[in-house]
Amino acid sequence: MVARRGRRSARGSDEGIPSPPGYSAIPVKFSGKQQASHYLYVREHRVREGTKSSWPQKRTLFVLNVPPYCTEECLSRLLSPCGPVRSVELQEKPDLAESPKEPQSKFFQPKPIPGFQVAYVVFQKPGGVSAALALKGPLLVSTESHPVKSGVHKWISDYRDSVLDPEALRAEVDTFMEAYDKKVAEEEAKAQEEEGVPDEEGWVKVTRRGRRPVLPRTEAASLRVLERERRKRARKELLNFYAWQHRETKMEPCALSPGLQSTPLPCHTKPFSEAEARRAAVLSSLSW
Is it the case that residue 208 has pLDDT exceeding 80? Predict the structure, then answer.
């Protein structure tokens, strides 16, 4: 039984490590005390012909199944025997973007990925990719010369890294705002140059710099419009109140003089009463 087990273990060690089609497996251990190996699956990064990629061709190694304790610095150190490493970037899933990304800030980085990740390793020479595909392990992540923190020590280190330097943060924000203002100024200058100028087919490009400013569709703009309408309605109600008061004043009864009847008559009946008095005086003056 012991001999059979020994033959089976030797046969299993000679057989190749199972890996996805098109990938090569590299065994990795956290430290020399660990017996089980973790496997990284690597292949050369390729895209379809005619498709743009932010990673250089024939110099980029695509790595799957990167464990959480393996950082960019650690992965660069593990693959440095294959050749000089130019850059390493860890991501949650494969990158399908065709345009190059803007450089990330060390102060405004997204939250770290808690689980396994994928990596893009860019070598300075194409030979680094072929050497990495033929790499045999196991590779040690944490060594005496390059220890990797774990447990409470890693939590303490993460907390210290979370405390930012105010001066460095202010300098980076100022640099970003200067670049942003410069970009906006260039866009406005370009829009002014293209405004009203027809192209080769006679079409005129419509820009944001129109004759009549367009109301922005934002919540603040909507609130300003509602406030303006409320004030307009209040002012209109006040004006209507004064008009109604003026009408009521005209419709009030007018008091007659003390020599006439003491019964007040409405204002609109006063001309009729005076006409009747003149008619009675004329009739009494006539002799029949």
Answer: no
Picking from 12, 39, 47, the residue whose alpha carbon sits closest to that of residue 23 is 39
Q: How far is Cα 106 from Cα 263, in angstroms, rounded to an integer?
A: 94
CA–CA dist 284, 277 (Å, integer): 11
Neighbours of 19 (CB within 10 A): 17
Convert 23-91 into a string of H (helix), E (strand) and C (coil).
Answer: CEEEEEECCCCCCCCEEEEEEECCCCCCCCCCCCCCCEEEEEEECCCCCHHHHHHHHHHHCCEEEEEEE
Residue of 281, 247, 253 lying closest to 267 (CA atoms): 253
Q: Which residue has the tokens 């406005």?
A: 188
For the chain, what is the total number of helices (H) and then of strands (E)? 7, 8
Q: pLDDT tens across 44-73, in order?
A: 988 877 777 778 888 999 999 998 888 888
**C-alpha span between 268 and 271 (Å, rounded):** 7
The confidence score (pLDDT) of residue 168 equals 87
Are β-strands 253-254 and 265-266 bridged in parallel, bridged antiparallel, or unpaired? antiparallel
> What's the CA gap between 198 and 84, in Å, rounded?
52
